[in-house]
Amino acid sequence: MIIAFKKDDFPAAIIRIEQAQSALNEIDPAAQICLMPGTLPVNLLAWVMGHITLLRSFILMASSRQQADPQALMDLGQLAYQQFPPEDVTGRSVGLLDMCYASQALSDAAEAEKRFEEAMTVALRGGNYFGAVVAEYHRAHGMFAQGKLREMLAFCKQKKQTYHGYFEHPLQELPAIALLDQAMGCTLLELGELEQAEALLRSGLEVGQWMPREELPGYLALARLCALKGDAAGMEETWRRLDMRWPDIRYCTQAMRTLYRLMLCPDEPEARQAAARWAEANPPVISPGIVLPGIGPAFFDEADHAVFVAWVKIQLLLGQPDEARKVIAPMLAVAREHQIIHRVIELSLLEAQALYLQGPKECAWESLRLALSHAESNGYLCLVDQHPLLPHLLNEALSSGLAPNYIRRLLEITPHPAPRLPTPAALPPAPADDGLIEPLSNREKEVLELIAAGLSNAEIAARLCLSPHTLKAHTQNIYGKLNVHSRVQAVNRARELKLL
Would you state the pLDDT for residue 421? Predict the structure, then answer.
């Protein structure tokens, strides 16, 4: 009831766990049990205690973002490993997996990879092929998170061959092998190999069908691929299947539906209103006491990260770069600290788009340069489709001489027909026929209105929660767009243009 990670089933499972816990006193400390016919007996009390601890760890992994506690998960995994009799290698290997998931939840990909290798070794020694291949999948996922795309592909191909060699009918006897197909599909999508990616994602998801936590990245990738092909029905079918498979993360599929609708129709009033309502109702939970989404299956990490990123993209499309940057900054800091290169690329591109909207535009180039440097060196080719304002930003960067060969390739690789991404006309609009060469952003309008109201720079910065440097940049942008050189001239010119 617990392993499917559907919270509706947890209350009934917890009753059984508590019954087992209360029955521990009735077990003779010297009692033994044979786990399988023909095997050596193990201590019954230790075996039961180990399983109770594992079950509690599984429930902990389904905690919400506010209750996410990687250290508690690490402690439970360690305790289970110690409680199981030495002969129960399978139980011990699952305890090790808990410790691996805790490292992932802390975004420590390098440490998690080492732990998964140990868990895999222990699992194979005990004949736990399922646990072993799950560990292999997460090792591959860690490589993906670190941007090691080609290395990850080679790893998955080798491991598939290894595990196929253990069975006469591999996918029938160990369906979890299909997770390696899903992992390769996610990677091939980033490399721009769309046909191979789709084949592997579909076959992998078709075979698995019962491991929703591990399958989530595959579903997200398949939906994105459908969007790239302009297959709206296929994308919706992917979300529907995920809703059915894992009802607990419908909040994630709702976020994806809202985002893609806005990306496809950035000027449609209903899409903008729906996105604004969703964003207001679902702000990312970020505070010093809350662990940001990691890179693994615990604590809904992958789903929460996808939702946080969707929220940021929606804010950019709605012309709210300041709000977007408040979420980007802490997430990007964690990604940089742990060298989660995939997220460094993703979040740096979002940061560049936010800086571009805030202005001056040149402030965006450093973030864009960092993202493109990592992306090009690791073989990423499919970037443009998932970043709402990126095509416009890349075209401007191209004219400035930034990474021209790579940018041209990125702009050419996006397949057609593809989702219609926002163009400059879909950016925050200025009043029609206002005589401006370039329209004021929403934030610049707010600053201009406060200047006209007679507030000082310090008062404006405090009112809008801006740093002095950012306020100065907005003010200079306003002067440039209005072709003036002072606050008084700016207000007079704005009134002439009926901007105030």
Answer: 36
Q: Within a domain: residue 20?
A: yes
Contact by Cβ (8 Å): 61, 298: yes
Whether the pLDDT of residue 380 is over 80: the answer is yes
Q: Contact at 8 Å (CB) between 222 and 408?
A: no
Q: What is the CATH number of the domain that holds 491?
A: 1.10.10.10
For the stretch 87-138, pLDDT in tens is: 888 889 899 999 999 999 999 999 999 999 999 998 898 888 988 999 999 9
**DSSP designation for 43:** E
Among 84, 105, 120, the domain-final residue is: 120
Q: Which of 29-43, 144-158, 296-310 has the weakest average pLDDT?
A: 29-43
Specify whether 471 is located in the same domain as 401. no
* H or E, element range at 42: strand 42-43
How many domains are contained in the chain? 3
Whether residue 116 is contained in a domain is answered as yes
311-336 pLDDT tens trace: 999 999 999 999 999 999 999 999 99
What the block records as the tokens of 394 is 């890349």
| 113 and 65 inside one domain | yes
Q: The domain containing residue 358 runs over which residues?
A: 334-378+394-408
Distances (CA, A) of 409 to 383, 402, 404: 11, 13, 9
Closest CA to 376 of 419, 409, 414: 409
How many Cβ atoms are within 10 Å of 8's Cβ, its own excluded?
9
3 compared with 78, residue with greater pLDDT: 78
CA–CA separation, 448 and 452 (whole Å): 6
- Measured in residues, the chain has a length of 500
What gap in Å lies between CA 2 and CA 152, rounded to an integer?
Answer: 30
Residue 352's alpha-carbon distances to 287, 332, 337, 357, 424, in angstroms, are: 23, 12, 19, 9, 15
pLDDT of residue 210: 64
SS3 category, 499: coil
Same domain, 399 and 454: no
433 pLDDT above the threshold of 70: no
The radius of gyration of the chain's CA atoms, rounded to the nearest angstrom, is 26
Domain stop point among 55, 86, 120: 120
- 270/489 Cα distance (integer angstroms): 38
Residues 290 and 68 sit within 8 Å (Cβ to Cβ): yes
The pTM score is 0.80
Which residues, including other chains, have CB under 8 Å from residue 474's CB and lie 6 or more apart?
Answer: 358, 359, 443, 444, 447, 466
